[in-house]
Structures are given as C-alpha cells and as structure tokens.
Amino acid sequence: MVDYLGGQLPDGQRDVFERHLNACPPCLTFLESYKHTIALGRFACCDPESPAPDEVPNRLVEAILAARRSACRPSEKP
Hints:
Elements: H1 2-5, H2 11-23, H3 25-44, H4 58-72
Helix pairs in contact: 2-3
C-alpha cells in the first residue's frame, strides 16, 4: 500500500492492485482510511500554530492538542 500511494508499485502490480480495489469495497474503504490516517499523522507533526484543514473534525483536533499538552508536561514523581 505504501508503494502504491507513493507511486513506486511496478505497473503490473499496480494494475492488479487497482483491479482488486475496484472489485473490493472493503479494501477501497481501508485505503481511503489509510490515506486519511497518513494526512492526520502529518498534521499532528506540523506547526501547532497552523490551522487544521477544514475536513478534520474539531473533536479530533482538540484530542491531538490535549495529547500534545499532556506529553509536554514534566513527569510528576510520587
């Protein structure tokens, strides 16, 4: 899948992969989810001051920001 999305899959394999995607809705859904996950991962690593893309749910942005704040706190020792 990484090679396919990166344009690195050889032509013959790409054709087979695409034929399968056209015949298999669950795999196509998984591919779309995978692409969305990659985009969100890139967003999570971007400049925290830059706005989130409109298609990213606000609750997800809030959760990512909360996780960042939590990860940046010094650990508390008992």
